[in-house]
Amino acid sequence: MMTQDPEKTSTFHMPNPLRTRRGIYRQHNAALDLVIFDQPHACELQLTLRPQPGETIPALFQRLGSILKEHDASIVKQDIFGSLAARSAALDALQRAMGKVEWPVMWLEGADCAGAPIAGVQVLAVSGAAVQTIALKGQIIGRAFDDGLARHCHFGALGPRDVTSSQADQTRQAYENLEAVLQQAGMNMTQVARTWFFLDNILAWYDPFNRVRNAFFAKHKLSPGSLPASTGVSGRNPTGSALTVNAWAVQPHAASVRVRVIPSPLQCPAPEYGSGFSRALEVSTPHGRRVVVSGTASISPDGRTVHLGDVEAQIALTMKVVKAIFDAHDLTFSDVTRAIAYFKHAGDAPALAKWCAAHGVGCLPAVVVQSDICRDDLLFEIELDAMV
Asked: pTM for the complete prediction?
């Protein structure tokens, strides 16, 4: 593993072509985290961009475009967390900086905790592999690529057909649309490894959402030991629908690629209290291992929220839970490649940096946003991906 001095450069330079050296390469500074997973048949880039002080929205996307151009990389999916009021101008700036947008863009009103119009941008991109665009009824909804060992499909900003129907009906429709694009891509629900659900006003209808999700999984005969890892938090979307959905599906080509659910040593399985997702999931190949940790919060082994009203204690327990998952799979926080931290109250955001400093954890490659979580008494939630 190679880590550059974050003070020396704001862009990441490697020998060209990228695939002359196998491995994982990382760069971090205050405005950018870039992780490059270099494999024989594809080079995967995970980027987390945070606005620099005084940086305009056009400059932010120009910076993204420059990084991708440097590495000759194509975007597979893009998630933008920010104010809905900034969306129109931001998408115009994105198109000016990068040309026609031919990948799924998920825009979520995950407010910046310091009040900026954009909290951050996360991008998955690839170099050295062909990228296929997937559309549903004329709308670009996903992209797929093959790394030589498996085919990966990433879907973004999936929603319902009818935004005027009930929240439960919209959830069913979103799942039906996910099923349709999976079939279009030659895949099925059993190959979905990870989902993200952003529910408008989640606290008002999380229980009905869970009932629809559980019924859908039962229909497809997905057992608790085969459910996707997942995140479910609050967030408005530009269409005004009750929810928007992202998903990642993996189609292995050989037995050497293994996708499996892994438990959380310090928490019970989420289905025990009615939520249909797995705590974490591991994808292992001959070239490396990645662990994706679902949205994780201050929940005890019996499923109760603990440390009510104490954000620092909730962060401490949450990170202890994550560490236990990492410890069980020979990972550390230095292996994290992407994270999103959700705070119920924007003013609590500095508490995560305080915890990291106290525990010797370097700056996480995270976007930090203000968002309601699935329970009114949860003040903090975090999701993370790690790779070795």
From this structure: 0.93
| Ramachandran region, residue 282 (left: φ > 0; alpha: ψ -120 to 50; beta: rest) | beta
What is d(CA 59, CA 41) in angstroms, rounded to the nearest whole number?
32
User: Which residues are bridge partners to 275 per DSSP?
Assistant: none
Element at 207 (helix H, strand E): helix 206-219
Is residue 344 one of the residues assigned to a domain? yes
DSSP line for 286-332? TTEEEEEEEEEESB-TTS-B-STT-HHHHHHHHHHHHHHHHHHTT--
Both tokens assigned to 151:
């085919």
Q: Check if the beta carbon of residue 26 is closer than 8 Å to that of residue 34.
A: yes
The reply to whether 201 falls in a domain is: yes
Domain count of the fold of the chain: 1
Inside any domain, residue 1 = no
Query: Which string of DSSP letters, residue by residue, matches 263-279?
Result: --TTS--GGGGT---BS
- 3 state DSSP class of 96: helix
- pLDDT tens per residue across span 224-264: 889 999 999 999 999 999 999 999 999 999 999 999 999 99
Per residue in 291-316, pLDDT (tens digit) is: 999 999 999 999 999 999 999 999 99
Question: What are residue 48's DSSP bridge partners?
Answer: 33, 122
pLDDT tens for 306-353 read 999 999 999 999 999 999 999 999 999 999 999 999 999 999 999 999
